[in-house]
Every structure is written in structure tokens, then in C-alpha cells.
Design goal:
The complex is a heterodimer of chains A (568) and B (806).
Chain A (H helix, E strand, L loop, with lengths): L1 H27 L3 H19 L4 H4 L2 H22 L11 H10 L4 E3 L5 E11 L2 E11 L4 E4 L3 E6 L2 E11 H4 L2 E5 L2 E7 L2 E7 L10 H9 L6 E4 L5 E6 L5 E8 L1 E10 L2 E10 L7 E3 L2 E5 L5 E6 L7 H8 L1 H36 L7 H8 L1 H4 L2 H13 L5 H7 L14 H29 L3 H9 L4 H29 L2 H7 L19 H10 L7 H26 L1 H5 L2
Parallel strand pairs in A: 6-10
Antiparallel strand pairs in A: 1-12, 2-3, 2-9, 2-12, 3-4, 4-6, 5-6, 7-8, 8-9, 10-11, 11-12, 13-14, 15-16, 16-17
Helix pairs in contact in A: 1-2, 2-4, 4-19, 8-9, 9-14, 9-16, 12-17, 14-16, 16-19, 18-19
Chain B lengths: L1 H32 L19 H7 L5 H13 L9 H42 L1 H18 L9 H10 L13 H81 L10 H23 L5 H24 L5 H97 L7 H21 L5 H11 L3 H45 L7 H36 L2 H21 L7 H32 L5 H11 L4 H18 L8 H8 L4 H13 L3 H8 L4 H12 L1 H16 L3 H6 L8 H7 L9 H33 L4
Helix pairs in contact in B: 1-26, 2-26, 3-4, 3-14, 4-5, 4-13, 4-15, 5-10, 5-12, 6-7, 6-10, 7-9, 7-10, 8-9, 8-10, 10-11, 11-12, 11-13, 13-14, 14-15, 16-19, 16-20, 16-23, 16-25, 17-20, 21-22, 23-26
Chain lengths: 568, 806
């Protein structure tokens, strides 16, 4: 028993140490919310296990882990994102961007008039197969140099981003070589034998070109910078004629110090400096600008930075957004309300007919009519979209509109009005069985005595419906209607799969369409990069949606008395 | 009693109708998935040519010709997927492949023989029943003739005859029935004269319109000239006048002072000449004003001019009283006025010339406008005349119509009778082409005539119906012709196949050792074999074969002869099978997608159920902080749009994927992880069920010394197993049906779940492959519907109780 206790405590300590390390790692990578979430989680778990009084919470630990990582963290992330410019062009953190500017081969340039080498590659073989272990020998016509083994300076997920290797004269390297007809054929280095493999100037080695390119050049060699004793840098670059040459390069940006006057005080800051012009780069609103020779600014890179309430105020102030947004907003409510209305009216009518106990085969009718609900919505929507509403081949246009009525085919997906008709039709078809079933249940719970009493008093059928059935029905069904409204308010699948939100609205900078509801609009903003992704704005809208749907659901819980039910 | 029954019947009728409308999409899905033809391009809603081929292609694709050759190729070259097997194994596999290939060749030959047989049967039938068929055709023509019963009108016959003659009809067959020459004069009165008049008017109209065009251009050029000119005047004159007014105000002040000033000047400029000048400019100003006043748009200038003159007059008045003044200031005043007057008069001159130019432009503009006006009036006149004439003409035609219809029906009868005579002696199938020409003629003549009848009338419809199937000789000819071409192309195709296959069988295994050693050389015979299967078949064999097959089924529809229908259907079936053997088909991953979906959904369902079963327990049995509002606030929090979780989870997964192998984006494990967030609703359901399990059982166990955990595992969980099973199934269904998150996380086709896989069947190149799409949809739909109907009680119950599934 004691052994178990000790084992348990060790495990807990190990878990805590491991998770804390993970949290620190995440923090260093810029996942601030996630690492904070993780720390809170670790604290809670440890607390629950150590503290005797929090026994009930121990049952919830797995649920808490999922809840924290998959629900609370995303919410925190979304809220923070809503106040930033996170999106296309502003994807990485400032630190990552600066690192990339310093390291990435894109931000190097070939020194004009610099040295150029011819090079040949020597590879170690394993049996008859070449390996990725290689040596590079280069010559400027006068001297022959060889590179030492490279050191990886920066790598990500196992692939090299930047590596460095020292260059030295072959004669001074102390490596033994073996020549044939004046050409070096073998290099011996600490028991490894490297065999002549490839040189761009030697057509005889062109059979090895594929292996060289895909196994050596792209993954490794192109990332290496060779440094000679004079600290000049060389690397392989592809030229416009497609050849890969070994040339002298220089980094475009370096870190440097600059004196800046801020709030009347002179401050020395670490800034990026363009090595060509010698001017420091300027940072503004999460974008880094460089200044070219003519003194013009141009954006080099962007990083995530604070945006204040701009994402929220944009909804009202930017005319290219506010117009479409208002239309989407209104349509969103119309769509949810009409969906509920249509499905409820049809569902209730059918329920009233089927509620007659003397009707033969009513279970069959009920089972048949429930099928649209039973089919997964995405399948039905795709069937409707592809088979029925397709403008050219769809059977609605082909057999009913032109075939039966002889009208022009309807442009279901290109005309805003008809697109709305299409989504509402499909949604009604999908949703009425639910309303029918729900109404049937509610109707059956109304006592028969009421009707008998009413019949004795001489009430007509119509009166009985409006005075007895409907009010009693509504007490049970009203919360469900609110719930259905909330569900349809966010009914993404139907809109997205059927029309994709289209047809597109004119005169707008965001991907807004005539049948878009807020959630599909948000999705398009965030994940469909047609006009660039805008996570910040998308997050702002999703907070808005949450406020609307959350308050609807809160009202609903109150209406249905779910709070009371939970608190047994 | 009777009444009640009636109404019940009506209710059932309406309910059945509603069920049909509601379930129509499903009926459509089922029928389309079984169709052999391409439903998207078909003119029929349903088809009787059925097949299970779509399901076979999706679930158990046959290793058909093209797939076989690529497998043989991989074996000979020892390339993936066969790179790791021994040569012995490869030889064995190659032998089975070749065996199978031979079987396919055999099958194809048998099928071809069947087609040959059926075609020769068809020819024979045509030969034997040549008379019967022609007779049938003649009978059909007779039916048409019998339909052509139009009353002979008592008026306008000759006129209509002339009209027809004019339109190029040959009237001879009508014989003495009409005398077109007698109708000519009358025709000219009714129709000819009007037609002539319309033609001349139309050409006049065209000339007028061509005249109007350059005028229009000129007009706009002048208009823009006018605009710039008056703007120049305004911008030139207004600021100057304002300046001058100010200058005059200064002068006036000087004048006022000079009256009181005592300082006497030594000499003065000539008072009178200055004044005369001044007065002259005033007159010029007035003149200018008159000119400017013509233009309403220059009202501002006019106003300023008026005001300016007003100041002028004021000064003049004061000046009269001051004449003879000797003060120095008076001298200043005079000097000022003198220079001022010079400036003003030059301005006036400038303005006058500007105004003159404006006048010129205006005159031109007005002139052009007038010309346009005149032309428009003329055009309008001609147009209204034209309208009137055309109306008259169409009325005249309307009057003539019965006569025309009558005459043309007579003509048609005659030509049909002629055609009937011609075909009588035709021998089938040799003279099928001649027969086809005649049938086309019948079709054309009758269709032309039907177009003449009033749109949608009964006569028109019945004529069109009668003539619809009359061109069967053409269809038959197409069947025979395409059969000939198909056979021609088929022979070398099958011969090549055999030839190359035999060679591959011999030398293929010999290439294997070298291939294994890395020297991959494809034998020429194999190359030719691949070429024959992939391109010769598609380019040479398929086109004629498919046309033949389609025409054969058309012919069967048109002829409606039982003996033939059977044999035509056999042709259709045989060619369909040939196509299935040799057609190159894309690979589908439906089974894999379903597997992926099942893996993901099952894992998610089990994990979520386990976690929630655990977490819901304290909510039902223990007292702690947060119990009261815990689940409800969870439910509320989960109202946050799930799609927006994805930005965070997407970022997280793409990051984690770099460090944890087997996890991250585009991995099923990543997707499973992303799905695990939906726990709130299940907690709510399970907690509700725990509440119904009496506490006493646990209390009894605890008295016996069991811990809380033990009572939970040994008592509560087994008792709650029904609800846990329900939760597993419901979560399974919910996850199976999820589309959005999967679409964001999975990018590789092989990793797709069923939901996104099906989506690819509805877009891109598959958009019109309805057979595959509906079959795939049905495969996913059926188990889900069955599960739903089985779980109905819980789904409905849960919704009615909680009403929170959102």
C-alpha cells in the first residue's frame, strides 16, 4: 500500500515537472494563452489530488483537461485575437518575424562582384547506395577549399533552416585525398570515405543530378552558409538560367542599435538595419517597413500586434464592411425566424392530422415523414444542391421549371432572391419532421377532458384549437422554438454546402454573399483565403454571435426550467 | 357514414401525396444510383436501364483491363506497389494477371459475337419483314394524313394560293383546286402592296438613322464646347468684377473725403475727359450685361455686373456735386478712375469677344438640335407608319391563315402520298438510306406544317406526337453504320491485345531480375499493350460503340416491336459490359473514407462517454462548490460558435504536428482530438440518468466498507450502462455527420472522412457523375437512417427534455 502511495506521488511529481516544462516551451513559442491554460490546469490537478476536501473534483480531471484545452483556451485565444490584426500578412509573432528576416535565405543577396566558386560533391556510400553524408570541395581557379562538417544553427521540426560551415584550404585541412588524372576522386576523413559524386560542370556526373538535388541540395546544402577565414559568406543560389552556383552572399538585415526619441527622452533600441542602405527599419502597426534608395517605404513583413477595438468599430465605420454586414445581420435573423416559422407551421399541421387515433397507418406516415430528419444533413444538402438545384442539370430546372411550366431556368445560385428561396426550401425540408415529432408529443400530453368539456360548451373545432390546443402546446413547445431559432441562427452546414453563402455581394472588401449568415461569413473570413484571411475580424464577429446565441440559450434555459431540473 | 369515409379517403390521399413529395429526393437518389446511363445529361427523370455498377465501382472495384495492365507494368518493372517482393512471387502474380487478362479478352470476344449475332438478327429481321415495316411506315403516314382534315374555307383561296406561290411553293399538285393568277390582284391589295411599302419605309428609316448618328456626335462636341466657354467667362469675369467693385469703393471714399479736404492740388488731370471715359465704360458695361443676360447659366455674372453698375452710378452722382473740386485727394481720385477705366475697358473688350464666341457656339448648337429634332420627327412618323402597316399585314395574314393552312394541308397530303408511293418498293435493309431520306422528309414537312398551327393546340400536339418516332429508319441506319465502324476498329484492337499480351507473357519475367537491380526498362511489347488498352480503346473503339449502343436503345423505344426490343437490349447490355472491362476508371477511396469516419467517430464516442460518465458522477452524488451552475454554464459556454474554436485548434495542431509524430493537421488523431470538446450536453444527459438510480444501493455498499470509487465502478456504472450505450451511439452519429472541422483539418484525399469525401463527389469533375454520387450518398445514408430510427426514442426524448442540442 505504501509502495503504491510512493509510486503515485512520484508519478504526480514527474507529471508536474513534465507539464511545467511543456508550458514553458509553449510560452517560448508564443502560445501564451495555451501555456497559461496549462499552468492553471497543472495547478488545479495538483491541488485536487493533494487536497482531501476536493475529492469530488478528482472525477472531473479528464473532463477538465479537455474543457481547458479544447474550449476555454480557444475562447481565450479568440477573445485575444479579436483585438489583434492576426490574419494574412500578420501570422507570426514579432520575434519569429525578426528571426526570419535575419536568417531566411530570401533575405540574403548575392554580393555584386563577389567571389564565385566551382564546386564538386563527394558522397559516402553505403554498399552501392549513396547517402546524405557529403563533402563539398570548391575552387576559385587558384586555390582549392573544402568545407568542414556543418553545424545546424536553426532547425524546425527536423528540417534544417540554417546551417554554417567553415571553409579552409584543402592543403591545410589535413584530409587525405586520392587523385586520378589530376581530379580528386576520393576524400578520407576519420575512417569515412567520400567518393566523387557530382559536379555541375561535369556532364559525366549528370546521372547523379536527381539524387544531388533532392537528397542533398534542397534539404541540406542550400541551407548552409560557408564562412571563410575572412568572414566572407558563400552559399548556393539558383540563378535565372536555372543553374545552381556557389557565390558570395550577404544578409540583407542585421541587428543594430539606434537612438530614438520617445516621449522627449532619448532611448537606445535594438532595431533591424538594412545592410545595403545602412538605414534602420521602421515598425508601425505590426508591419515592418524598409526604406529603399529613393526614400520610399515598402512593407517587408508583418507580425501580430494589438489592434484595440478596431475590429469591432470597423463593423460600423468602414462603409465597405458595414453595408454588407448589416445585410448579413438582418438576413441572419430573417433566415432563422422564417426557418422556425415554416418548419413549425408544416410540422404542426402534420402533427394535428396524425394525432387522430382513428387514423389508420399513422405510425407508417410518421416513420416515413421523419426520414428527412434521420438522414445526415450534409448528405441531404448535397443531394439537393447537386441533383435538384444545379442550374444546368438540376431536375428542378430541367423537369419542373422548363419542362412543366416552360419558364426560363431559374438561376438558383446566382440570383440573391432565388438563392434564399433555395436555402429556405432545403432547411424547411430538413427541419419540419423535428417540429412534427415535438408537436405530436406535446399534443398527446393535452388531456382529452378539456376537449370534452369544450364540446359540451359548444365550442367549434376552430375555437378548440385556438383556445385549448394552441396555448397548451406553446407552453411545451416555446422553449424548443427558441432552441430551434438559436440552432438555425448558426446553421452553418446548410448555407455553406448549398450556396457557399453566394451569390457574392457587390462593392465589398470582405467575402460577403447574399445568403451568408454571420457564422458562414466568419468562416469565410477566417478559412477561405480568396481575399486573404482575417482571423482578427472573424474572432470579433464570433464573439458577437456568441453574445446573441448565448443570451438566447440563457432565456431558453429559464423558459424551460432547466436550471431547476439540474438542481435536484 | 358515407361522408366520414369520404373524408378519411381524402386525408389518406393528401398524406400519401405529402409523403411522396417529401420522400421524392430519396426516391430520386435510389433510382439514380441504379441507372446505367448518365442521369445528369438524360432527358428522362427515371430510366429502366438499371445496373449495380456504381456500387461495384465504389465498394469493390473490379480489376479491369486498364488496372490490370498497370499492375503488369508494375510487376515487370518491380515498381511500387511490388518493389519489395521476390522475383518468384512476381512471376506468379504476373501469370495470374495475364490469365485474367486472357479471360477478359475472351469475354470481350464473346460479347462482340453476341453483338454480331444480334445485329445480323436485326438485319435479317429487316430483310424478312421489309414489307411489313414499310407497310407500318405507310400506315403511320396514313394516320398523319387522316389527321389533316381541315375545312375548306370559302374565301381567299386564290389569294392564299398566290401567297404560297410567292413563297416558293409548287402548286401543281393542287390541280384545278385553285387559280393563283386570279388571286394576284387581290393578293397585291392585301399583302403585296403592304410588303412593298414596308420595305421602302424600312430602307428610308435606315438612311435617316444613319444621318442621325453624326449629328449626335456633333451635338455632344458642341455641348462640351459650350460648357467650357461659359465656365471660362464666369471664372474670368467674376473675380475681376469683384476686384473692381472694391477698387470703386476705395475711389468713392476718396471722393467723399475730397469734398471736405482743404489741401489744394497744384494741377489736376483733365476732369472732363476722365469723366467722359468713365461714362463710356458704363455704357459698355450695360451693353455687356445685355449680352450676358441671354444665358441663364451666367446669372451670377449678370448680378455682379448690375451691382457693379450701381456703384458706378453712385460715384457719378457724387461726382456731379464735386465737379471743380481742387483738392489733392480729388486729384488722386481722378488718377485712380483713369487707370481704372482703362483696365475696365480692356476687360470689357475681352469679355465681349468671349461672349461673341459663346454666341457662335450657341447658334451652332441650336442649329444641330433643330436638325436632330426634324430627323426624329421623321423617324417617328415612319416608325408609326411601319407599326400600322405591320399590324395590318399580320391581320391580313390572320385572315388568310385558314386558307393557307387548308392549302398547305392539301399539299402535305399530296407529298405524303407521294412519299408513301416511293417507299412502297424499297427493300430493307439495303435501301435503308433511301428510306431514311424519305422519313426525314416526312418529319420535316410535318414539323413545318405543325409550326403553322396555333401554339399548343390539340392538332399541333397530336401531329408532333405522330411524327416523333417516324424517323426510326435513320436511327436504324445509325445503328448499322456505327456497328460497321465499331467492328472495323475493334478487329485490330483485339488482335493487338492478343499479340502484345503473348509477347509480354514470354519476355516479361525476363525483365524482372534487371528491374530488381535498378535498371528499369519497359519492354516495347508492354508499352504497346498499355497504349492499346489506354488510348486505342478510348480513341478508336469507344466512340462508335457508344453511339451504336445509344441508338440501339433509341430504336427499341421508337419501333416498339417486341422481338426486336429484346435483341436491342442485349446489344446495349453487351456493349455496356465491354466498356466496363476496358474503360479507364478513377480510383475511389470511399471504403477508406468510411473506415476513417468509423475510426474517428468510434474513438471520439468512447473517449467522450468515458470522460463524461466520470465527470457527471459528482454532480449527481456529491456536494461541492460549482455544482449548482456547473453544467448549465458549460452548456452556455459551448454556445460559442464551434467553428471559431478552429482558429485556435488549427494553430495548435499545426504547431503540435511538428513536434509530435502521428499527430497534428491532416491526421485522424488530430481530428479526434479536435472533436473531444463537445462534452457538456452528454454530461447533462448522463447526470440526469444517474439521478434516477436510488442512493440506497450505494449507501448499503458503503456501510459494507466500499469506497466511493468502488461504488461508482461496481454499482452505478453497470446500472447506467443503457444510457452510456445510447451516448456512445449518439456521439458516434454526431461525429460521423460532422463536416466542417474535418474539412479544415484534413487535406489529403486518403485521410478524408466520409463527409468530406462525399463533398468531393458533388463538385469538380464528379459534379455530373450522379450515379457515383448518389450511390456514395446512399451507402452513408442507409446505416445512419437505420441507427436514427432505432435510437429515435432517445433522440426525441432528449430533445424534448433538454431542448439544448445546438
Amino acid at each position: 500500500m505504501k509502495l503504491f502511495r510512493i509510486l503515485g506521488w512520484t508519478l504526480l511529481v514527474l507529471f508536474t515537472i513534465f507539464s511545467v516544462l511543456g508550458g514553458i516551451f509553449l510560452f517560448s513559442k508564443g502560445f501564451y494563452e495555451l501555456s497559461v491554460t496549462l499552468f492553471v490546469l497543472i495547478f488545479l490537478i495538483d491541488f485536487f489530488i493533494i487536497n482531501r476536501n476536493s475529492y469530488p473534483y478528482r472525477y472531473m480531471i479528464p473532463a477538465l483537461v479537455l474543457l481547458f484545452i479544447l474550449v476555454l483556451y480557444p475562447i481565450a485565444f479568440t477573445i485575444r485575437t479579436a483585438f489583434t490584426n492576426y490574419g494574412t500578412g500578420h501570422i507570426s509573432t514579432r520575434q519569429e518575424v525578426i528571426e526570419r528576416l535575419l536568417v531566411d535565405p530570401i533575405y540574403t543577396y548575392v554580393v555584386e562582384g563577389g567571389k564565385q566558386f566551382s564546386y564538386s560533391i563527394y558522397v559516402r556510400y553505403e554498399g552501392t547506395r549513396p547517402t546524405q553524408d557529403f563533402k563539398i570541395v570548391m575552387s576559385d581557379g587558384k586555390d582549392t577549399f573544402i568545407a568542414r562538417d556543418y553545424k545546424v544553427l536553426k532547425s524546425e521540426a527536423g528540417s534544417i533552416i540554417l546551417a554554417e560551415a567553415d571553409l579552409m584550404k584543402l592543403s591545410e585541412s589535413g584530409l587525405r585525398v586520392e587523385r586520378q588524372e589530376g581530379r580528386i576522386e576520393f576524400i578520407f576523413d576519420a575512417g569515412r570515405i567520400f567518393k566523387y559524386f557530382y559536379s555541375p560542370d561535369d556532364p559525366e556526373t549528370s546521372v547523379n543530378e536527381d539524387f544531388f538535388r533532392y537528397q542533398i541540395l534542397f534539404p541540406i546544402l542550400s541551407k548552409i552558409e560557408f564562412v571563410n577565414s575572412a568572414q566572407n559568406r558563400f552559399a548556393i543560389r539558383q540563378f535565372e538560367d536555372g543553374t545552381f552556383r556557389l557565390v558570395e552572399i550577404s544578409h540583407l538585415y542585421k541587428l543594430g542599435l539606434a537612438e530614438v526619441i520617445e516621449r522627449g527622452k532619448s532611448i537606445v533600441k535594438v532595431v533591424l538595419i538594412n545592410t545595403k542602405t545602412g538605414k534602420p527599419l521602421i515598425e508601425e502597426n505590426g508591419t515592418i517597413y524598409d526604406i529603399n534608395e529613393k526614400g520610399e517605404r515598402f512593407a517587408v513583413a508583418g507580425y501580430i500586434s494589438g489592434y484595440g477595438f478596431k475590429n469591432f468599430t470597423r463593423i460600423f465605420t468602414d462603409p465597405t464592411i458595414s453595408g454588407p454586414f448589416a445585410r448579413i445581420f438582418v438576413w441572419n435573423f430573417t433566415w432563422a425566424a422564417l426557418s422556425v416559422l415554416f418548419t413549425f407551421v408544416i410540422g404542426l399541421s402534420l402533427a394535428l392530422v396524425l394525432n387522430n387515433p382513428n387514423l389508420r397507418g399513422r405510425t407508417i406516415y410518421r416513420s416515413l415523414l421523419i426520414i428527412p430528419w434521420a438522414i445526415p444533413a450534409f448528405i441531404s444538402v448535397l443531394v439537393w444542391k447537386n441533383g435538384f438545384f444545379n442550374e444546368t442539370y438540376g431536375i428542378l430546372n430541367k423537369f419542373i421549371i422548363t419542362g412543366l411550366f416552360g419558364r426560363e431556368p431559374i438561376r438558383w445560385f446566382n440570383d440573391p432572391f432565388w438563392a434564399k428561396v433555395a436555402v429556405l426550401t432545403v432547411n424547411t425540408w430538413l427541419g419540419f419532421p423535428y417540429m412534427m415529432v415535438v408537436s405530436l408529443g406535446a399534443l398527446q400530453s393535452i388531456p382529452e377532458d378539456y376537449y370534452e368539456a369544450a364540446a359540451i360548451d359548444g365550442a367549434t373545432k376552430w375555437q378548440r384549437f385556438w383556445k385549448i390546443t394552441f396555448p397548451l402546446l406553446m407552453t411545451t413547445v416555446a422553449p424548443l422554438l427558441v432552441g430551434s431559432f438559436a440552432f438555425n441562427f448558426n446553421n452553418f452546414v446548410n448555407i455553406y454546402l448549398l450556396t457557399g453563402g453566394g451569390p457574392a455581394m457587390p462593392n465589398t472588401t470582405t467575402p460577403a454573399g447574399a445568403t451568408d449568415i454571420l457564422i458562414s461569413y466568419t468562416y469565410k473570413l477566417a478559412f477561405e483565403g480568396g481575399r486573404g484571411q482575417d482571423f482578427g475580424f472573424a474572432s470579433a464577429i464570433s464573439i458577437l454571435i456568441f453574445l446573441i446565441v448565448g443570451s438566447l440559450s440563457f432565456i431558453n434555459f429559464k423558459l424551460s426550467g432547466s436550471f431547476e431540473e439540474v438542481n435536484r | 357514414m358515407m361522408v366520414k369515409r369520404e373524408r378519411k379517403f381524402l386525408t389518406h390521399f393528401i398524406l400519401v401525396l405529402i409523403c411522396f413529395v417529401v420522400l421524392f429526393p430519396i426516391v430520386w437518389v435510389v433510382s439514380t444510383s441504379l441507372r446505367r446511363d448518365n442521369a445528369a445529361f438524360s432527358t428522362k427523370l427515371f430510366s429502366t436501364r438499371l445496373t449495380l455498377q456504381n456500387y461495384i465501382d465504389l465498394l469493390a472495384p473490379e480489376k479491369n483491363g486498364p488496372r490490370l495492365v498497370s499492375d503488369i507494368d508494375a510487376l515487370v518493372l518491380m515498381a511500387p506497389p511490388h518493389e519489395n517482393i521476390s522475383i518468384e512471387q512476381a512471376k506468379k502474380l504476373l501469370a495470374t494477371d495475364i490469365e485474367r487478362f486472357k479471360k477478359y479478352i475472351n469475354e470481350t470476344e464473346n460479347l462482340k459475337k453476341r453483338v454480331d449475332k444480334e445485329i445480323s438478327f436485326l438485319k435479317e429481321y429487316f430483310e424478312k419483314n421489309s414489307d411489313k415495316l414499310t407497310e407500318m411506315f405507310a400506315k403511320n403516314v396514313d394516320t398523319i394524313i387522316s389527321q389533316l382534315k381541315f375545312q375548306k374555307p370559302d374565301r381567299y383561296l386564290n389569294i392564299a394560293a398566290y401567297e404560297l406561290q410567292d413563297a416558293g411553293f409548287e402548286l401543281e399538285p393542287l390541280g384545278n383546286l385553285v387559280a393563283p393568277s386570279e388571286g394576284q390582284a387581290e393578293w397585291y391589295k392585301m399583302i403585296g402592296s403592304r410588303k412593298e411599302r414596308i420595305n421602302t419605309l424600312k430602307s428610308e428609316l435606315a438612311t435617316l438613322q444613319s444621318e442621325l448618328q453624326p449629328l449626335e456626335k456633333k451635338y455632344y462636341a458642341l455641348l462640351s464646347q459650350f460648357k467650357t466657354q461659359y465656365k471660362t467667362i464666369e471664372s474670368l469675369l467674376l473675380p475681376q468684377l469683384e476686384e473692381y467693385t472694391q477698387a470703386l469703393a476705395v475711389a468713392e471714399e476718396l471722393l467723399d473725403r475730397s469734398a471736405k479736404s482743404e489741401l489744394v492740388a497744384e494741377s489736376l488731370p483733365d476732369e472732363n475727359s476722365v469723366k467722359n471715359h468713365f461714362v463710356t465704360t458704363l455704357a459698355q458695361l450695360a451693353e455687356l450685361q445685355l449680352k450676358v443676360e441671354r444665358y441663364e447659366s451666367l446669372q451670377k455674372v449678370v448680378d455682379t455686373l448690375k451691382k457693379f453698375q450701381e456703384t458706378y452710378r453712385n460715384i457719378l452722382k457724387k461726382w456731379e456735386n464735386n465737379l471743380g473740386n481742387q483738392a489733392t485727394i480729388y486729384a488722386d481720385f481722378l488718377n485712380m478712375i483713369e487707370t481704372f477705366t482703362i483696365r475696365v475697358s480692356s476687360t470689357i473688350k475681352e469679355s465681349a469677344s468671349l461672349i461673341r464666341r459663346l454666341d457662335e457656339t450657341t447658334a451652332k448648337l441650336l442649329n444641330v438640335q433643330k436638325q436632330q429634332q426634324n430627323l426624329r420627327v421623321k423617324i417617328h412618323n415612319i416608325q408609326s407608319q411601319l407599326e400600322k402597316l405591320e399590324l395590318e399585314l399580320s391581320r391580313a395574314y390572320e385572315e388568310l391563315k385558314p386558307a393557307i393552312i387548308y392549302l398547305r394541308s392539301e399539299l402535305l397530303k399530296k407529298s405524303l402520298a407521294e412519299i408513301k408511293d416511293k417507299i412502297k418498293n424499297l427493300k430493307l435493309p439495303e435501301q435503308l438510306q433511301a428510306f431514311n431520306l424519305q422519313s426525314k422528309k416526312v418529319f420535316g414537312l410535318v414539323s413545318d406544317f405543325a409550326a403553322l398551327l396555333s401554339e399548343g393546340s390539340k392538332e399541333q400536339k397530336s401531329l408532333r406526337n405522330l411524327v416523333r418516332n417516324i424517323d426510326w429508319p435513320g436511327t436504324a441506319r445509325d445503328v448499322f453504320n456505327n456497328y460497321e465502324l465499331f467492328s472495323q476498329n475493334y478487329e485490330p484492337f483485339i488482335k493487338d491485345l492478343k499479340k502484345y499480351l503473348a509477347q509480354v507473357e514470354q519476355i516479361g519475367p525476363k525483365f524482372m531480375p534487371t528491374s530488381k537491380a535498378g535498371i528499369k526498362v519497359r519492354p516495347v511489347a508492354l508499352e504497346r499493350l498499355i497504349d492499346t488498352v489506354l488510348s486505342t480503346y478510348r480513341n478508336n473503339v469507344v466512340p462508335n460503340m457508344n453511339v451504336m449502343s445509344r441508338k440501339a436503345s433509341e430504336l427499341s423505344d421508337k419501333l416498339k416491336i417486341k422481338e426486336l426490343s429484346n435483341s436491342l437490349k442485349l446489344i446495349d447490355a453487351a456493349t455496356f459490359r465491354i466498356d466496363q472491362i476496358w474503360q479507364r476508371k478513377p480510383d475511389h477511396y470511399l471504403l477508406r473514407w468510411i473506415m476513417n469516419s468509423v475510426i474517428v467517430s468510434l474513438s471520439v464516442a468512447i473517449i467522450i462517454t468515458a470522460v463524461t460518465a466520470l465527470a457527471a458522477y459528482p454532480f449527481s452524488r456529491m456536494r461541492f462548490k460549482g455544482r449548482k451552475y456547473g453544467i448549465m454554464s458549460l452548456l452556455l459556454i459551448q454556445m460559442f460558435p464551434a467553428i471559431m474554436y478552429m482558429i485556435a485548434i488549427y494553430t495548435f495542431l499545426s504547431f503540435a504536428g511538428k513536434y509530435i509524430p502521428g499527430f497534428g493537421l491532416n491526421k485522424l488523431s488530430g481530428l479526434i482530438f479536435a472533436y473531444l470538446g463537445g462534452i457538456a450536453y452528454n454530461m447533462y444527459l448522463i447526470k440526469g440518468y444517474y439521478d434516477t438510480i436510488p442512493d440506497s444501493l450505494e449507501e448499503a455498499a458503503m456501510i459494507d466498507g466500499a469506497t466511493r470509487w468502488q461504488t461508482f465502478v461496481k454499482i452505478v456504472l453497470p446500472l447506467a450502462s443503457p444510457i452510456l450505450a445510447v451516448i456512445v451511439i449518439l456521439t458516434f452519429m454526431g461525429t460521423f455527420n460532422e463536416f466542417v472541422l474535418a474539412r479544415i483539418i484534413l487535406q489529403d484525399v486518403k485521410q478524408y472522412t466520409y463527409a468530406i469525401g462525399l463533398y468531393t463527389f458533388s463538385t469538380g469533375p464528379f459534379e455530373t457523375q450522379w450515379g457515383l454520387f448518389t450511390a456514395a450518398a446512399l451507402i452513408g445514408m442507409v446505416p445512419m437512417v437505420i441507427l436514427f430510427l432505432l435510437m429515435q426514442k432517445y433522440i426525441v426524448g432528449g430533445l424534448v427534455k433538454g431542448a439544448v442540442k445546438g
